[in-house]
Amino acid sequence: MVRSCFCFLALTGLLNVVAGEVTLRPFNDGWEFRWQDESAWRPAPVPHDAMRDRPFAVEAGHPVRADEALFNQGYRKGGVVTYRKRFRRPVDEARLAVRFDGVFADSEVSLNGHPIAARHNGYVPFEARLDGLQEDNLLEVRCRAEVPSARWYTGAGLLRDVWLVRRTGWAPEPDAVAVSTAVRDGTAQVEIRVDGAEVVSPRRGRYEIRDVELWSPESPRLYEVEVVARNGKGETGACKVRFGVKTVEFTRDRGLILNGKPYRLKGVCLHENFGCLGGAFNRSALRRQLLEIKSMGANAIRTAHNPFAPAFYDLCDEMGFLVMDELFDEWETGKTKYGYHRFFRDDALKDLETVVRRDRNHPCLLLWSIGNEIDEMSKPGEDGRRAKEWTARLATAVRRLDPTHPVTAGCLKTPKVEENGILSELDVVGLNYNRAAYDELKGRYCILGSETTAVPVSRDAYLFREGADGTMEIVDRANGWTHSAYGASLFKWAPDGLEGSLAIQDRCPWSAGEFVWSAYDYTGEPDTPKPETKNFFWPAVSSPWGIHDLAGFRKDRFYLLKSAWTDEPTAHLLPDWTHPGKTGRRFPVWCYTNAEEGELFLDRRYLDLFKLDLTLQTGSFQMVSHGGASGLHRIRL
After folding, report:
1. How far, rounded to the nearest angstrom, does the alpha carbon of residue 353 sit from its chain's CA centroid?
2. Which residues pair with 249 in a beta bridge?
3. Are 101 and 161 in contact (CB under 8 A)?
4. Confidence of residue 72 (pLDDT cuts 50, 70, 90)
């Protein structure tokens, strides 16, 4: 794949001659890597996660009570990992650079033994100029991937694509172009500006699209414009930019208004994690995830808790997802020993600018989140004062670069956050759990559920104990790492589970909607069996929070959301109907459906309606739903 911006030199206004270009070509091949405690170099197919194959930091064969450094990273060892690539100098005279979409983390780049670039943030793109090339060259990238560096499995190394950038002449960089739109009477007014340059075409940086087709998750219509600009030296260049047209308004009483109509966010939180594939970006794996999320009825995704790879936003543009683009999980107060808090004060504004410039033209972008559960936001005294200052600084920086998208943050303990004056600095208040806040903040702020639910579930784990009367009772967990597929393990911060969260959104039309935690299980943070004591046990290496498991298979909760979020006929029964030695016992049978009513049959014999205790028998178990949006639907066990 080649991405290009072409430069033109205008002659007498009639002829355009290509005078230069900016071209990005894949630079993923030929890399090798090794850890500091290794001697041999190994091939590294980039994007590459060096941590994925690291040894587990536990005693083999023994259940180990893990400390934070172990469980957050899925028990994988960290350390210092180095990549290298040899290449020959190109024969042309282009100005060369190498662009990294993301290197985790705390990376240093050297060329032929000389440092040329560095970046602490592993989720932010950066470039390194390749000046002074020799005939044969050695490019090295050193990453300090100590654990724990986050509250989830991060992976380590060249996790995203690497590009060779060629520049001849002058052309505007794609992230220097900002496109904004306004719609009136079916016509879109498009305004374009280029940082540090004058827009030549479209004329004065403005043009109209008549009978415009608006972008939405249901109809993701995309447009492309070629922008011609002139820099301060009089050089003229062009760049193509893709965008969409939509109108967004957050209100205090009606929630989100999208393209002039009330619109509910049916969102999920997503970690950039691909199960056994590790943390390295994989476009095919991501597309599979997004297709599954779409089929569930979701229309929005929150990037938890960092900016994602560029291709994620391209796919969301094309497939139709609104995105809450989250920038930070830590500010000045750390959550993990080697987290971003070590660099926040010096790097935050620089990293923010890089990401905002990169993502601001994506039609999928709905709003910016400048932080997730930032500890100092709710603290008294100096910590709270500094948190307010940082909230104002970050929000102001976003609005300067992108005045078209609102700013939010995922907030806990909202009374204390409001007391510190922080909520008023946000355009939209994000509520992480915080059930009472929906009523407390009603009419005073624009609000949404930035993170809701958090119910640990193990797929197909139907756990029971036999009661005195022979009825099988649901057990919430077993074996130290398995949670009930019924979603019976509830936590104090989300005591009503997924059903309760859906009910809150139905009851509160002034909320813009919610982002459920989480779309998929992810490596790291295996919160079992006793989260209140942080007693986490091997061999659980992944979280249990997902609507899908680590391999991407659906849990029963998928169908609860699908029945709530779509009009597609849905009926799903649980548990399974095979429990050896338990014939004649009574089992709780649940059904998720969007029908108005349903009937249960065993071998065509009518049993009863909906959620029941049923006696386990052999045979074909069938549910028939009818009425409402779903029509007639049958499902068998």
Report:
1. 19
2. 257
3. yes
4. confident
Containing 127, the helix (H) or strand (E) segment is: strand 126-129
Long-range contacts of 284-293 (CB under 8 A, 24+ apart): 286/311, 286/312, 286/315, 287/315, 288/552, 289/519, 289/520, 289/548, 289/552, 290/315, 290/316, 290/319, 290/321, 291/319, 292/548, 292/552, 292/554, 293/268, 293/321, 293/519
Q: How far is 245 from 215, CA to CA, in rounded Å? A: 5
- Least confident span in 141-145, 563-567, 621-625: 621-625
Over the chain, what is the mean pLDDT? 89
- The answer to whether residue 88 scores a pLDDT higher than 60 is yes
Q: What is the mean pLDDT of residues 178-207?
A: 96
Distance from CA of residue 279 to its chain's centroid?
Answer: 13
Tokens standing for residue 12: 């007498």
Q: What pLDDT does residue 378 have?
A: 98
d(CA 490, CA 501): 12
| The length of the chain, given as a count of residues | 637
Structure tokens, 131: 């000046």
pLDDT higher than threshold 50 for residue 578: yes
Residue 548 Cα to chain centre, angstroms: 15
State which H helix or E strand residue 564 sits in: helix 557-565
Work out the pLDDT band at 59, boundaries 50, 70, 90: low
Residue 99's Cβ-side half-sphere holds a number of Cα atoms within 13 Å equal to 19
Q: Which of 453, 460, 562 is nearest to 518 (CA)?
A: 453
CA distances from 517 to 8, 218, 339, 466, 540 (A): 48, 23, 22, 32, 19
Spatial contact of 303 and 272, defined as CB atoms under 8 Å apart: yes
**In b/e form, how buried is each residue of 409-424, taking b as 16+ CB within 10 angstroms?**
bbbbbbeebbebebbe
Give the Cα separation of 398 and 624 in Å (integer): 52
**385: CB partners within 8 A, 6+ apart:** 420
Residue 334, classed as helix, strand or coil, is coil
Instruction: Cis check for the bond before 105: say yes or no (omega within 30 of 0).
Output: yes
CA dihedral sign, ordered 145, 150, 155, 160: negative
Report yes or no: 401 and 393 within 8 Å, Cβ to Cβ.
no
Which residues, including other chains, have CB under 8 Å from residue 204's CB and lie 6 or more apart? none
Per DSSP bridges, beta strands 407-411 and 429-432 are parallel
- Alpha-carbon distance of 325 to 515, in angstroms, equals 12
- Beta-carbon contacts of 609 under 8 Å, excluding residues fewer than 6 positions away, are 597, 598, 599, 600
CA dist., res. 119 & res. 91, Å (int)? 29
Residues 6+ apart with CB under 8 A from 421: 388
How confident is the model at residue 478, as a pLDDT?
A: 78
Largest CA distance in the chain: 94
pLDDT at res. 16: 46
What predicted TM-score, i.e. pTM, was given to this entire model? Answer: 0.93
**Cis status of the peptide bond prior to 47, with omega within 30 of 0:** yes
Distance CA 634, CA 625 (A): 7
Q: Higher-confidence residue: 302 or 69?
A: 302
Q: Is 187 helix (H, G, I), strand (E, B) or coil?
A: strand
Cis previous bond, 518, omega within 30: yes
Phi/psi region, residue 525 (left: phi>0; alpha: psi -120 to 50; beta: rest), is left
